[in-house]
Amino acid sequence: MPPAEKHILEIDSAELAFGERRILSGVYLLVETGGVTAVLGRNGCGKSCLMKILSGSLKAGFCSMRIDGKWHRRFTEKEIRYLPQHPFIPGWLRLERALGDFGLQREDLERWFPEFISLRGTRIGELSGGEQRILECFIILRSPARFILLDEPFSQIAPLHVATLQTLIRQEKATKGILLTDHMYRHVTGIADRLYVMADGQAYPCENDEDLVRRGYLNHL
């Protein structure tokens, strides 16, 4: 495989408030091709808000968003694909149609997750919560975008499938930049090349678990 073309995604000086409640206050974050950037933080700290701003589904009070130093008001689907926490595929669609709509083949999904072989022809709404989450993660990760945003990708997923998704993320980062967050922090830190923890409306770079304790994300080691 030829070397991937390098790209850098940055969000800088991100500000967001809901009434008197300030969520983000001057956040800076960087994602680059060939790496996984992970964001940790307690519930309500603004992790999902940050991803929604990057995806264009939430408007910041102020922010500068750049790819390779070029400012963007919003990004296209060729630049960014976003996995939200909530299901996004209509329940009436059949599995093959959902994959086809994203330009993907059923056989590719089944190579990674053989459990889907027995689910051929199934409607999305008939899948379990874990099966839907696997499918959505797979679709977004395989999308031909420069950057992939994953909000709680491991939610409802069994440990065996978490390990497969981690392998898929490692493969896809060779040609993409990946930003993810998840409350199962060991799954996150195990694949992160760059780590931030959000607290007090800002994103702080972290090198180890001691930093996570110091920033109040962990109570102790």
TrEMBL record:
Keyword Transport applies: yes
GO BP terms, alphabetized: L-amino acid transport
Domain named ABC transporter: residues: 9-221
InterPro entries named among the record's database cross-references: AAA+_ATPase, ABC_transporter-like_ATP-bd, BCAA_Transport_ATP-bd_LivF, P-loop_NTPase
Record organism: Alistipes shahii
Family: Belongs to the ABC transporter superfamily.
Any one GO molecular-function label of the UniProt entry: ATP binding
Signal sequence, start to end: none
Keyword Transmembrane helix attached: no
Pfam families according to UniProt: ABC_tran (PF00005)
Superkingdom field: Bacteria
Name of the protein this chain belongs to: ATP-binding cassette domain-containing protein
Keywords: Amino-acid transport, ATP-binding, Nucleotide-binding, Transport
